[in-house]
């Protein structure tokens, strides 16, 4: 019998329960995957807490690496034994699971299982953020909040690789040193540095063309003040809580600003988009332009401890669960 983490009711980390599961044969267009490493992302906490509702019960998690165990009818792109990776498919906190074949991508030999699981959701998110939502280029100065987090570290390195000057905010001096070693030109510490004032000083009073904000409530209004006229506010998370209702006329008053709330489902809706995004992620990782740091590992059955660590904001880089 196989096991998975199941959530029967939303709430704290204690709601993550180690359960026996039964996994049948794959249906049309599906494969059965024996998973070897599972990624942990802050969005998993949003689902667990009920901030992002899902029908109960459910298995959390959205990215993993595994080996194809069996293929269903109509699957021609994969075969048993293939090593694959996916992101954006709910139900990853499991030893074995069924996955739509069109969401799986073969993992290059030069990327380990753990790195693949740690990078895919974050890497695909960073890809659409800096290559599609706003196309970061040489000469840009950008602001990245939570720069020491999983997405933040990838995004800072990728933006630096593209020629941008990167300003990042972090919660501690230790994290400031980390991001400075990974693409951040200016590291600002919450509670010590006034990030709005610092951004204005760094940009000569002009502001930045884009802010990437995954913190939400605590930084949102300040982020708007960091933007230059017609700048883009990219809100892609809310670790401090949801942003309160907003009078959109404030966007006019602060310089005809743009505001977007991008999601992976909207940016990667097709097989072709998934393959294109994944190839860009593989390329920057294999070239060394983006280094994936796995600083915390937990047994899959201890997923609650992983969530506690992430929510404490004491973690850096990526967390993985090992089935």
UniProtKB/TrEMBL annotation:
It holds the Pfam family ADH_N. The keyword Iron does not apply. The lineage of its organism: Bacteria, Pseudomonadati, Pseudomonadota, Betaproteobacteria, Burkholderiales. NCBIfam families: PRK10754.1. Keywords: NADP, Oxidoreductase. PROSITE patterns: QOR_ZETA_CRYSTAL. This is Quinone oxidoreductase. It comes from the Bacteria. One of its GO terms (molecular function) is mRNA 3'-UTR AU-rich region binding. The keyword NADP applies. It comes from Paraburkholderia panacisoli. InterPro entries: ADH-like_C, ADH-like_N, ER, GroES-like_sf, NAD(P)-bd_dom_sf, QOR-like, Quin_OxRdtase/zeta-crystal_CS. GO terms for cellular component: cytosol. Residues 11-321 form the Enoyl reductase (ER) domain.
